Fold this sequence. Notes:
2 domains, mainly alpha
Amino acid sequence: MSGGQSVLALGSTAAGTLRRRSAWRLHGSDFLWSVAFVLPYSAIFAAFAIYPILYALWMGRDPELYSALLSDPRYLVAAANTALFAGVAVNVQMVLALLLSGFFARRRRWIKLLLVVFMLPWTLPAVPAYLSFHWMLVTGHLGLIDHLLQLLFGIEGPNWFIHGWLGLTCDIIASVWKWLPLWTLILLGGRMAIPQDLYDAANIDGASLYQRFVHITVPLLANLYLISMLISAIWTFADYTPVLFVSMGAPAFTSSVISLLSFHYAFDLSHSTLGVAAGLSMLPVLVPMIVLLTRALYRTEVQL
């Protein structure tokens, strides 16, 4: 009996060892496959995200660069223009998007067709869209706007790029025209997700259209509206394409923004470190907005 028990014990020990080896091989294989799957993405993220950020911080580490920026009148003008450009463009397009989302939420065939046409500016590539906007504002009979003013009202249009404030206004209008369809579509999706039963119950209770908007639509869309506004603000602060291709910073960089001036420093003047420093100077504004965006996203997840 003792010999048989010894044989059984040895057999169970060998079976346990075999199971452990099989499990180790299985888990080891899973681990290797996980590493093989994650490693390329990690390498791409490190090469195209982490390294450029760290290298930019290293290039802009010299405090004298920021002293040079503050002593440049063009930078001060560009900083003011950036705040005005982002503040006006973002708020105008978000308010209009909220109102237009209510209009496009109506279930009528002609409104659906109109929504398709309304989305066209957003679907166009940015460069040809802004260039077409620029050529519409060219002074004289070649410009569509001036030609229409002459044809309909018999007046000559202004030189749209002769004053910095006028050129910046054109840039803001072009940016709103380009991005308004996107935010309208996002808020329209948020509106469509609101249960219709809430509106029906409010209608039975005698609530007016304004009351349904204030007490149902606004509270349920508030977080989506905030997130959209923060994303739009971050994009607008870093976007130089409307200024570059519409007003081109004319005249003499008086309608320029910081992102375009950074481009000018780095490529036109071959002063890459000053261009990087100009871009990094927006971080004190962008970082708080990113923090607010992250908190808003987590708050939305908790509510869901």
